[in-house]
Structures are given as C-alpha cells and as structure tokens.
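Annex B. Sample input.
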Amino acid sequence: MQEHILIIEDEQIALKNLEHILLKDGYKITAVDSGTKGLNLIKSKIFDLIITDYKMKKIDGMQILEHSRELQPYAEVIMITGYATVDNAVIAMKEGAYHYIAKPYKLDEVRQIIKQALLKRSLQMENQSLRKQLDQKAKLPEIIGNSPSMLQVKKTIAQVAQTDISVLILGESGTGKELVARAIHSLSSRKKHEMVAFNCGSFSEDLMANELFGHEKEAFTGAMKTKKGLFEFADQGTVFFDEIGDMPPSMQVKILRVIQEKEIMRVGSTQTLGVDLRFIAATHRDLRHEVDQGHFRQDLYFRLNVASIILPALADRKEDIPLLAYHFLAKKNRDMGKSIKEIDRITMDLLANYAWPGNVRELENIIERAVAMENSEVIYPEALPDHLTQLAIETYRTAPEGKIPTMKEQEKRYIQWVLEQTNWNKTRAAEIMEIDRVSLWRKIKAFKLE
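Annex B, continued. Sample output.
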C-alpha cells in the first residue's frame, strides 16, 4: 500500500519543496499550511505519518502531536522547526514524537528518518493484526468440518449470532453442542460480557434455583451472606442451558418468566431485578416429542426454539474424521509435549469405519489415548483401543450372500485387505499381521494374490 503522509508547514516554500520531494519518492501526500487545517484532516482522515512544523499560529506542532496521539495513535509524528532547542526536542520526544529535526535540514537525512518512521508504523500495525488474529482464534471455538451438514451449521451460526434471538441446538451427546453455543456468543454483540453454561441434569430443583437465581442472606439455613445467581452474573451476556430437556416442569415455569419478563427474584427476596440476557439451549432429546408427551412446556419450547441448529452425528459426516483426527492430534501434541506427525493409513481407515456412538467426544478421547501410547512419530493401529483394531477382522467375517466363510477364505480376504491398506508394502503388512515377511510371501503365492 502507498503510505499516506500529512505535511503541516506554514512556510510556503518549505511546504512545497518537501511535498515535491516526497511525491517523487512515491508517497501519497496531503499538504496544508496551518495547524488548524492539519487538525481538521487528522480528525477526518487516516495517515501513516504526520510531519509538522513546531511553531505555527493558533495551533502549533505540540498541539498537533497531542491530538494525533489521541486521534491516530498508530501514526508516527516528526517535528520540524527553525527554533530548535534541546529542551523543545526533549519535550516533543517525551510526548511521543518519533523524531525532532532542526532547520535547515538535509533532504537525505529527512528521507531516512521518514523511512524509519514508516517502518516502525508498519511493524506496529503488523503486530496489532497478529494480536487480533490470535485473540480471535483464542476466543472463537473451532467448529471443525467441511462436510455439507457442517458447512450448513457454520452458516447458521454466522446468521443467528448477529441477532439476539433464542437458539435451540439439537444433537446426540458428544456432537459439540456447547462448542456451537460458545461460537454464537463469541460472534455476537454480547461477546464482551459473560456466557454461563448450566447443565440442567446435574442439580436438584432447589439447588438449580439457588444456582440460577441466587439467594438473600438468611434465606435458608446456612445462607450466611447474599449470593448472586448465574442470571445476574451473566447480565448483558448469554445463558446456555445444556440438556434443557432434563429440566423439571416447575423450573420450566420460572425460566419462562425470566425470558418473558426479563427479571429475576433471588431466593428469599421480594424484590425483582432486571436482567438483559440471551438464551441458548441444547438437548439430545426429541424436544417436540417431549412436548407432545406433556414432559416439556410448549410455551417454553417455542420461546427457546426461535432458531434451531441440528448437529449431525459423527457417523453421518465421516468425511470430517481425518480433519478432526489431525486437529485433535495437534491439540494433544501440545498438551503432552509430543511431536507425532502422522496418522498411519490403516489407523485412519479404522477410524473412518468405526460407528462412533460417542461422536466427536469419543474421537478426541481415542486420539488422546493414542498420543499417550505412541512413542514414534506415527500413530499405528496398535495405539488404538482393542475394539477398533478388531474391526479389520470383523469386516471380513461374513461372506457375500450371508454364507459363513471358511478359515482359508477369511484369511485370504484379510491378507488382501491389509495389503491394499498398506499399498502393498509387504514389510508393513507383515508387521501388522505379526508374521514374518517370508511367511507373508508364501501366503501371497498360495492365494495367488499377486
């Protein structure tokens, strides 16, 4: 990008000379002959560098410096003056000027100082950009997956996050419902305030009321002081109800009132408190069915289900398994101080063919176990739990048309499968089958696999 420099100089000849030189050097230049004009520009436009005369009528260089620090903190300021003194230079530098140049000055010297000032500004902006990226990455939960169903989930997250509507997240346990809730909050206008997560299946009704609404001092035996509840703590932020389908009916009434009236009452109090909250709920249950069965209030269901996000089971988006596996590999490497670089092809095939009843959470746990167990730079099948490694044999247990295969037929199919999975690397195939290479060669010849 072409750097934009503002020159403020009330001496016309000096102004024109400096403007002419810097234009030839390829900079974009805006030049004005008074501090007043310069200040108006600083208020309305962005500059990379401001070069200002020190002594001017009405608004002088020190005032320009002061306002630029406030209005454009990343713009560097160079002070030029014919009234140079050591004291003035010290004051200007203390106030944040990049450099202080006395007239008459050498053009080559000014050019060099300008280059250095712009380089400093460029590095500052680059560091600021990197910090923003890191902050954004730290704050935004990663929703991993490029399957059509997950791309739709990401699209819906982006759409609902910009609003303040309630969202209901549906999906099996372990699919990442809380992760989606945190992504919505992190992308919303409430992101600077708290998001509190509350598991509706973990508390009795009395404890649930105490945790959510708080209590007054002496509201019950043992209440030694007033306690704020999660609703107050999350004021202007987001409340996430995990497993909302497990909430008792009597508590559902109280939650509905909070959503409708935007106010709460602590346990033991007669005074209401206003709260500004966004609500996100999640459940693995069929909440519409729960409503039909009378187990969940219809009015609360419609209040929470203004928009819904359905998270697919991992078994329904198996194309995302390699991406998720390597994501968790990198994460567990960092946690355990390891440097495993690769997941073996056969290992990945075993992961891809597994049913994943525990969904993404189970995959993370299995990768964590594998990283802990593996001492090489590659995760091999031996690092996986037994129920996954047995899959290779189970896959070939039944012959076509339901006929039970002979041991010889099953062995042939299994050896062929392992060879295909290893891209016909006989050494690796022999290691997996725990036989020597000569024995494998004999079996290949006997079964006429080549």
